[in-house]
Amino acid sequence: MTNTGRAVLRARGLSKVYRMGQVDVHALREVDLDLEGGELLVLLGASGSGKSTLLNILGGLDRPSGGTVHYLDEELTGLDDDDLTDYRRRHVGFVFQAYNLIPSLTARENVALITDISSNPMDPAEALGMVGLGDRVDHFPAQLSGGEQQRVAIARAVAKRPDILFCDEPTGALDVETGKKVLTVLDQVNRETGTTTAIITHNAAIARMADRVLHMSSGQIAEEVRNPSRASVEEIEW
Fold first, then answer.
1. How far apart are CA 2 and CA 44, in angstroms?
2. How far is Cα 188 from Cα 190, in angstroms, rounded to an integer?
């Protein structure tokens, strides 16, 4: 995927402080970040490095203690809760380690939960076909493997055609082979739809599939690496 070069999200001086009893815990420390249109970005770091906190703020799920976030020309940090909800609904898709599927609904119905409230969605069956589940649309979560459930979650996230897709440890609950299938889908979605994609992980091997890698440590971006040529999932040594 060729990046547009334009920053879709711009974060400046982001900090996040949690009060734990009498102690202040600094989850983020003055982070500056541009998320470029169309890129696949990997945020790499150990547990507690601040990567999930950063994703939650960029995705409008949390607010920073200091600093600003802009989505294109709109400052997110100045929005009220209703406007943040609208930002998430119209522009952002989320994929988490937990699949968060409703057990009593089929794959098609789980995706339709999102498409029914979106302005220009895909048909749920189309989204499920994109992730290789075209023959499983009427199966319930209990009838699907862990990898298939995660692919339903990806279909649900991309079906509303988001501008940005945030993935928080999307393979964390999966074995290596199943995780590779899920990453292949995310790579495909980014390349074919141009959806700006950010994946946070502690698995260093995943970095090779990214356009750009940010190494996080102690709430800061410790290193930025651009890959001149992205590897396909099949080319990565696991």
1. 22
2. 5
Domains contained in the chain, CATH given: 38-63+81-235 (3.40.50.300)
Between helix 146-158 and helix 107-115 the angle, nearest 10°, is 20
**DSSP percent split of the chain into helix, strand, coil, nearest 5:** 35, 30, 35
Token pair listed for 187: 């790579």
pLDDT tens-digit series, residues 8-54? 999 999 999 998 888 999 999 999 999 999 999 999 999 999 999 99
Q: Which residues contact 161 (CB under 8 A, 6 or more apart)?
A: 118, 120, 121, 122, 193, 195
Q: What is the pLDDT of residues 68-126, one digit of tens each?
A: 999 999 999 989 999 999 999 999 999 999 999 999 999 999 999 999 988 889 999 99
Backbone torsions φ then ψ of 15, nearest 5 degrees: -135, 150
- pTM, two decimal places: 0.92
